[in-house]
Design brief:
The complex is a heterodimer of chains A (116) and B (111).
Chain A lengths: L2 E4 L3 E5 L4 E3 L1 E4 L4 E8 L5 E7 L5 E3 L5 E5 L4 E6 L8 E9 L9 E2 L3 E6 L1
Chain B lengths: L3 E4 L2 E4 L5 E7 L5 E7 L5 E9 L2 E4 L6 E3 L9 E3 L8 E8 L5 E3 L3 E5 L1
Parallel strand pairs in B: 2-11
Antiparallel strand pairs in B: 1-3, 3-8, 4-5, 4-9, 5-6, 7-8, 9-10, 9-11
The chains are: A mainly beta (116), B mainly beta (111).
């Protein structure tokens, strides 16, 4: 069975500072990995995803993430955050193949708060 | 524009009442999902459907029911058996490369 752990429930950071949101996963097979963002009272939007190939993936709004198979991690980074990046961020994993009927498992979320 | 719509945005339920949340997509996706979101608990899967006329229970299906009579529609009914229904409900469909596309959500409140 697959699982996801987001290591920080809340991350406060000042505007223009770098940020890293940490995500570890567990699975017995190969996986797809995702980061989604949720603004207050809205649905989730895809930030970026790792399917295969290059371990460094770039997404929207200047975010990037690095897949580390040996450490089973998929941390999200941004070199300089803006006030508008304040939101909830979710890491998700989906196993290859049809064993889990296409279901994704989501972490509990990390609240990023950017302060002026 | 293609996407997922959910209605209503807010829904109020009285004790002992069944209520139905609407989810419609025009993305031509086969698979659709219902999640419940509570503060600090992330997303929990209620029901999912991989194809029309077929659906399976997720992790927290008790007190909920669904139907999938059309590809575009996947309504969720919160029954009176669900004793703690207050939450934010999200519908999603799955496109290529396992990516899920989410609706704007429905917030259910109990009167």
């Amino acid at each position: 069975a697959q699982s996801v752990t987001q290591l920080d429930s809340q991350v406060p950071v000042f505007e223009e500072a770098p940020v890293e949101l940490r995500c570890n996963y567990s699975s017995s097979v190969s996986v797809y990995l995702f980061w989604y963002v949720q603004y207050p009272n809205q649905g989730l939007q895809l930030l970026l995803k790792y399917l295969s190939g290059s371990t460094l993936v770039k997404g929207i709004n200047g975010f990037e993430a690095e897949f580390n198979k040996s450490q089973t991690s998929f941390h999200l980074r941004k070199p300089s955050v803006h006030i508008s990046d304040t939101a909830e961020y979710f890491c998700a994993v989906s196993e290859w193949g049809n064993t889990n009927a296409g279901k994704s498992t989501f972490g509990d979320g990390t609240t990023l708060t950017v302060k002026p | 524009d293609g996407g997922i719509t959910q209605s209503p945005k807010y829904l109020f339920r009285k004790e002992g009442q069944n209520v139905t949340l609407s989810c419609e997509q025009n993305l031509n996706h086969d698979a659709m999902y219902w999640y419940r979101q509570d503060p600090g608990q992330g997303l929990r899967l209620i029901y999912y459907s991989q194809i029309v006329n077929d659906f399976q229970k997720g992790d927290i299906a008790e007190g909920y029911s669904v139907s999938r009579e059309k590809k575009e529609s996947f309504p969720l009914t919160v029954t009176s058996a669900q004793k703690n229904p207050t939450a934010f409900y999200l519908c999603a469909s799955k496109g290529s490369q396992e990516t899920q596309y989410f609706g704007p959500g429905t917030r259910l409140l109990v009167l």
